[in-house]
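Hi everyone,

Forwarding the result from last night's run.
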Amino acid sequence: MERDVPSHLRCGLLLWIEHGVPPGDFLLAVLKNNLFDAVGRADSTSLAALPGIVWWCYSHAPAPCWGSPEAVRKWAKKHEPLPPHPLDAIVRLERKS
């Protein structure tokens, strides 16, 4: 992954695969196989890495989690409800005080 996916995208991609947490707009467009949207949303680093990101998804990501808007929707639905965000506990504690 280190060679193909830029460091600022790795966490988002892994959270998507492991927990169904939606990534940012660029990665979401890549996962939906929407080239026009991906290119339009990419920063220069992500744009240069686009072939490597697609190759990594094709070679390593579970096939049901990418490839079309429908596949992405089903993957997200499969992982509902999303795991609680670690900061949610802090917010709950602050509300009690």
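The first helix runs from residue 7 to 19.

Cheers,
N.
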